[in-house]
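Hey L., structure's done. Input below.
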Amino acid sequence: MRSLRAAVLVGVMALSAAACGDTTESGGDKASGAAGKPVTVQAANGAVTIPATPKRIVSLSPTHTETLFAIGAGKQVVAADEYSTFPAGVPKTKLSGFKPNAEAIIGYKPDLVVLSDDLDGIVKALTKVKIPVLLEPAPTKLDEAYDEITDLGQATGRAADAKKLTDGMRTSIQQAVAAAKPGAAGKPAGKQLSYYHELDNQLHTVTSKTFIGQVYGLFGLSNVADKAEKAAGGYPQLSREYLLKSNPDLIFLADTKCCGQNEAAVAKRSGWQDLTAVKDKSVIPLDDDIASRWGPRLPEFVKVIGAAVQKASAGA
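Output:
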């Protein structure tokens, strides 16, 4: 039976990011909502007009909560969902992005609601009472993640801050990838490394078609899950036998918080002590939250992958 951990991650990360990114301002004004002027953002739910710079934002997405704070709009956030755990000081509430309650959200008197999924018709329910809603789904590629940050910057009057953030993210990610490429720092090119990204200790994972998989793809890594049964859905559950036969060079654990997994725990699993990744000490613990979000802390995830690739390549 699929764990709650995997269900939550699949619900968030498997979404397609349709129509995100393009932004326009009403009346041809390019002030990005400055001085309280209306701004129209092209989100996944269409063209959304925010009449004035929002002062009471409700965020039902941990990733978007992080972004709002990173671009300087944190003081404008009056309520965030139960999974919005970063940064410190986030006004976390019992609001749920997976079971949204329109009445509870309206109770915070928001002038903007940001979410990553339209569950139970929440977008229509809020729009009906004239609350602007930005639907910014989980992206399928990096450019879409940057576009969503741009959208939030436009919507909150923080366009310049959003651009600074995305520029910094791009630079950091490019540097991490470049440092790990074959030939970097005079290192010879070795074999293509394979990896397994663990979502929970029931062996739920991701394929190369997912956003997470594409992040790993920046390093030219081969995903052992791509040929697994039900891999087409992007989030297959591997069998123990399949994983052992695949014998990945690198194992990344995105279940250190939820499921208490680490290198020692993995080594105790039946048969796992013979895996290349375990023998070579290439089992890499990840921060569950950072590894499942596509916002400001994405470069941290990329740097961890890059460091692991460099280490494994040096020992190849």
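The first strand starts at residue 23 and ends at 24. Confidence is low (pLDDT under 50) at residues 1-8, 10-34, 184-188.

-- N.
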